[in-house]
Design a protein that fits this description.
With 415 residues, the protein is α/β, with parallel strands linked by helices. Helices cover 37% and strands 24% of the residues. It contains 13 helices and 17 strands. It has a 9-stranded mixed β-sheet with strand order 3-4-2-1-7-9-10-8-11, sandwiched between helices. A 6-stranded antiparallel β-sheet has the order 13-14-12-15-17-16. Strands 5-6 form a two-stranded antiparallel ribbon. Helix 2 runs antiparallel to helix 3, helix 2 (42-55) crosses helix 5 and helix 4 packs antiparallel against helix 6 (119-134). The protein binds adenosine-5'-diphosphate (ADP), aspartic acid (ASP) and magnesium ion (MG).
Length: 415
């Protein structure tokens, strides 16, 4: 089998969905499983519903209406036959959502988040599946929650590989399947999510469990470039990269591939193709075994909205193992992601990302024991295969707050 993944950008409107059909017709869709994300920026729109529900604000219905109108507009463009069952199915999903909102007793934000946000993927896959069936591309819609099993660490769930493998390997290979990215279910059957942008990872999980011959991720860019084209002019296409190079790039923050995607593929030597859904003549990027990088050029990765924190002990004692393990525990307890560390005798600097809005809580926990200063809103640039020229290019962009170099990789924190 082969696996395709289409992200939000590829199904953001009716035209996008018709383009997916063009891709399928051009590339073939025999024995294929397609993983699809929520449409466009719908996950963000669902996050607003979560927030209204959690804070009990009065814009809840308005936020639901926005999501509903978005999908209904796309469906009106796609389906001439207004009695297509899909209209009822979409209605049923909104009814289910409203029922959850009316009856939910849990105050666990992360649990509520997963039950609500997951509807985005259910809607997109139902609509695309129905459209493909209507135009004669016969396919089977699969509820991923019956296959991909996770723990109950809502919003960042860990895959139960044993269960998942057992379930997915039951899918018969001779069909076209459409399923959701990003979602799973815990042992209780509650919806879980794998972390924002997690659909690439879902696709890799299917590829692994089905021993797929390849995974293709269809993007709005020509492939993996040596920099994010939104921030860097003249970004170059990397025609080939190794799994380990791709893992490093994704780990440092190249948002074109979710970092967890690569390992399952590498373990079974399944090639990953990153290709443009606009330009089907291009072969894009191949990620696989072998040479690190073709062409061999410096690669730039930017992470914005970082906090640079500087920590020293209140009693001027050295920052050694005891303090450091204490600090890391507090970072971990607050789900703060550490992107760079630097230590000196009396001060410890750490560049962190506050994905879950816990920074104030972290500060409160730290301040009784440590002197803490911080700068918010800094950018972390990582240059892989760095050259002097590449480093200069970045340093021109502002004030350098911290710089760290390891073999071939230079990281610079800029204000
Ligand atoms: P999806 O629709 O699959 O969710 P994303 O928007 O998450 O797609 O990823 C595609 C985007 O990733 C591109 O539009 C590009 O701006 C960004 N990007 C970041 N780093 C890179 C890179 N190194 N190469 C290509 N694109 C990159
Ligand atoms: N829809 C989810 C998100 O926007 C997952 C994904 O697209 O990968 O984060
Ligand atoms: Mg994405």
């Amino acid at each position: 089998m082969k696996i395709y993944k289409f992200g939000g950008a590829s199904v953001k409107d009716a035209e996008g969905i018709k383009n997916v059909v063009r891709v399928l017709r051009n590339e073939g869709f025999k024995n294929t499983l397609i993983v699809i994300s929520a449409m466009g920026k719908m996950t963000n729109a669902f996050e607003k519903i979560v927030s209204s529900c959690h804070l009990k604000t009065d814009d809840l219905q308005q936020n639901i209406q926005f999501v509903r109108d978005y999908h209904l507009t796309i469906m009106a463009d796609l389906f001439e036959n207004k009695s297509n069952l899909i209209f009822n199915e979409v209605e049923a999903l909104f009814e289910e959502l409203n029922k959850f909102l009316a009856t939910n007793k849990s105050t666990d934000y992360n649990f509520i988040y997963d039950q609500i946000v997951g509807v985005g993927e259910l809607l997109s896959t139902k609509i695309v599946s129905a459209y493909l069936n209507e135009i004669g591309i016969e396919n089977q819609w699969v509820d991923v929650r019956n296959y991909l099993k996770t723990d109950d660490n809502y919003r960042d769930s860990y895959v139960n590989w044993k269960e998942t493998n057992k379930n997915i390997s039951k899918l018969s290979p001779n069909k076209l399947f459409i399923t959701q990215g990003f979602l799973g279910a815990d042992a209780q059957g509650n919806t879980t999510t794998l972390g924002r942008e997690g659909s690439d990872y879902s696709a890799a999980i299917f590829a692994y469990c089905l021993n797929a011959k390849s995974l293709t991720i269809w993007k709005d860019v020509d492939g993996v470039l040596n920099a994010d084209p939104r921030y860097f002019e003249n970004a170059l296409l990397l025609r080939q990269i190794s799994y380990s190079e791709a893992i490093e790039m994704a780990f440092y923050g190249a948002s074109v591939i979710h970092p967890k995607t690569l390992k399952p593929l590498e373990n079974k030597n399944i090639p990953l193709y990153v290709r443009s859904f606009y330009n089907l003549d291009l072969s894009g990027t191949t990620v696989g075994k072998g040479v690190d990088l073709i062409p061999e050029v410096p690669c730039f990765i930017l992470k914005e909205n970082q906090v640079l924190v500087s920590i020293s002990a209140l009693d001027f004692s050295f920052m050694v193992e005891y303090n450091l393990s204490d600090i890391f525990k507090i970072l971990h307890d607050n789900k703060l992601k550490v992107n760079l560390i630097q230590n000196s005798a009396i001060s410890f600097s750490v560049c962190i990302e506050d994905k879950f809005n816990n920074f104030q809580h972290f500060l409160a926990a730290m301040k009784s024991k440590y002197k803490v200063s911080f700068t918010e809103n800094v950018s972390l640039y990582t240059i892989r295969h760095a050259t002097e020229k590449a480093i200069e290019e970045i340093e021109q962009k502002g004030e350098v707050l911290l710089k760290q170099a390891t073999k071939g990789t230079v990281q610079i924190i800029m204000k």
